[in-house]
């Protein structure tokens, strides 16, 4: 009796699959970052060949070298620490006040209607226009710098939170009340989760605002901070160092936004706004 061996099925190599995935990722990256990459490439080529004034717009490799030298030598460490401290204190205080107050005001319509005009008035008033007032009240030290950032970051968080509460589906609230749910349960199970996407919109706007006001605050009466380094480099005509500090601030902004987006996606998996 003879036994016939059966050859195992042939397996196709995974290389075509991997190459197709790599191609898809490359196309997606090109679609998303192609314009930015083209702009940076043009900047480098134009500055190197003298198409634009390299004194005002140095080549990117010169700027990156200045940034790397400043980071590795520790020249920016104190400035980064003080800038993050100022922005972090102001942003954290805005969160601690803005979110609870917004959740409270969004549920009490008479209070929201009474306070909305003054909120809109202060929201339309530039925080930089009020900065001299804060300096008169708090002095030219850390308190006025932190407070002007806090003032500017408070309103996006507060108004976004109020809007998120007001946009909660009232039918869900009425249904919960019909089934005898307590007010605290309705707030914890319906109002708060439904408001989270809008709150994150305010958090992201405020994070950007915090960095913008940080730069402005550190350009007036400061001797430390990344905003001070931008102004100091401009005064001394150290243009690569100036752009290096600007790029570093932009990177901090991108990192903060990416962190908030990741946190929003984790907390709001059920919401299309978290995509």
From TrEMBL:
GO terms for cellular component: plasma membrane. The chain crosses the membrane at residues 33-52, 88-106, 118-140, 146-165, 198-222, 242-263. The keyword Cell wall biogenesis/degradation does not apply. It is a multi-pass membrane protein. It is found in: Cell membrane. Keywords: Cell membrane, Membrane, Transmembrane, Transmembrane helix, Transport. It comes from the Bacteria. InterPro entries: MetI-like, MetI-like_sf. PROSITE patterns: ABC_TM1 (PS50928). GO terms for biological process: alkanesulfonate transmembrane transport. Its main location: membrane. Residues 80-260 form the ABC transmembrane type-1 domain. PANTHER family: ABC TRANSPORTER PERMEASE PROTEIN MJ0413-RELATED, ALKANE SULFONATE ABC TRANSPORTER-RELATED, MEMBRANE SUBUNIT. Probably part of an ABC transporter complex. Probably responsible for the translocation of the substrate across the membrane. Belongs to the binding-protein-dependent transport system permease family. This is ABC transporter permease. The lineage of its organism: Bacteria, Pseudomonadati, Pseudomonadota, Alphaproteobacteria, Rhodobacterales.
């Amino acid at each position: 009796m003879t036994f016939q061996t059966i050859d195992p099925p042939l397996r196709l190599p995974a290389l075509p699959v991997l190459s197709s995935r790599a191609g898809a990722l490359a196309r997606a990256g090109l679609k998303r970052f192609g314009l930015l990459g083209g702009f940076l490439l043009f900047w480098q080529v134009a500055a190197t060949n003298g198409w634009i004034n390299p004194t005002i717009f140095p080549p990117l490799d010169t700027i990156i070298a200045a940034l790397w030298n400043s980071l590795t030598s520790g020249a920016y460490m104190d400035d980064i620490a003080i800038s993050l401290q100022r922005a972090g204190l102001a942003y954290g205080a805005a969160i601690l006040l803005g979110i609870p107050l917004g959740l409270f005001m969004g549920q009490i319509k008479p209070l929201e209607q009474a306070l909305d005009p003054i909120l809109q008035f202060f929201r339309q008033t530039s925080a930089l226009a009020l900065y001299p007032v804060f300096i008169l009240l708090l002095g030219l030290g850390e308190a006025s710098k932190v407070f002007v950032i806090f003032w500017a970051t408070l309103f996006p968080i507060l108004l976004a939170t109020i809007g998120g509460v007001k946009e909660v589906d009232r039918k869900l609230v009425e249904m919960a009340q019909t089934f005898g749910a307590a007010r605290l349960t309705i707030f914890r199970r319906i109002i708060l989760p439904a408001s989270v996407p809008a709150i994150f919109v305010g958090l992201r706007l405020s994070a950007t605002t915090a960095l913008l006001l940080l730069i402005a605050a550190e350009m007036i009466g400061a001797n430390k901070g990344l905003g001070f380094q931008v102004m100091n480099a401009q005064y001394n005509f150290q243009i690569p160092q100036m752009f290096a500090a600007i790029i570093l601030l932009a990177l901090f902004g991108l990192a903060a936004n990416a962190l908030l987006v990741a946190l929003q996606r984790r907390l709001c998996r059920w919401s299309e706004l978290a995509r």
